């Protein structure tokens, strides 16, 4: 299977510049390599509860830890257009707005649950698409870290192959698209179902 084979709804891998391992020649090898790298971030953030302050630098750091052994640009906001996500010029501003929104959602007078805050955090990161690649995995892990830090149950996300093969990916993308229009119920339901398993 060629490396550049694109998965529907995923960021296309048209540009492989910045790929660190030189032995990777297929999508499967890349997925396995990235999964091993992402596990390092999971171990760092989901094994010991620590106070969490979501900031621009922290969001970049999570991505860097997830992909530092795979991509030279890990943890760096993209500087080019993609077929999905906002215009790259607006990324720093929109990420700052997201961080500020999260602080507002967490304020004492807020009635938004931690779970709903995590769903919105997840959705906003996907919608902005701040990095060249790995945005979906980054957004899910950031939302999980947020839930974990707030002593909430975590969803059990299926691995990439299962998502594609089972049709779950279409449900997930449809839920994200509903959230794009302001209806968060499908994404909340989708995520809650993954917590119940």
UniProtKB/TrEMBL annotation:
InterPro entries the record matches: Fido, Fido-like_dom_sf, Fido_containing, Mobile_mystery_prot_B
Judging by the UniProt lineage, the source's domain of life is Bacteria
Classification via Pfam families: Fic
Organism of provenance: candidate division WOR-1 bacterium RIFOXYC2_FULL_41_25
Q: Which Gene3D superfamilies match?
A: Fido-like domain (1.10.3290.10)
Q: Which residues cross the membrane?
A: none
Could you identify this protein by its name?
A: Fido domain-containing protein
- Active-site residues are 129
């Amino acid at each position: 299977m060629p490396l550049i084979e694109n998965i529907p709804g995923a960021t296309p891998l048209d540009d492989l510049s910045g790929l660190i391992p030189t032995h990777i020649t297929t999508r499967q090898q890349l997925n396995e390599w990235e999964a091993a790298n992402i596990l390092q971030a999971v171990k760092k953030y989901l094994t010991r509860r620590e106070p969490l302050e979501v900031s621009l630098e922290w969001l970049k750091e999570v991505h860097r830890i997830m992909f530092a052994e795979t991509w030279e640009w890990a943890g760096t906001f993209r500087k080019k257009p993609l077929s999905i996500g906002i215009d790259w010029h607006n990324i720093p501003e929109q990420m700052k707005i997201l961080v500020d929104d999260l602080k507002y959602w967490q304020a004492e007078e807020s009635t938004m649950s931690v779970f709903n805050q995590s769903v919105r955090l997840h959705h906003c990161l996907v919608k902005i698409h701040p990095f060249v690649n790995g945005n979906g995995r980054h957004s899910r892990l950031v939302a999980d870290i947020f839930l974990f830090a707030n002593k909430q149950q975590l969803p059990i996300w299926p691995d990439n192959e299962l998502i594609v093969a089972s049709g779950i990916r279409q449900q997930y993308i449809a839920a994200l698209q509903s959230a794009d229009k302001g209806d968060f119920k499908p994404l909340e339901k989708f995520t809650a179902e993954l917590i119940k398993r």
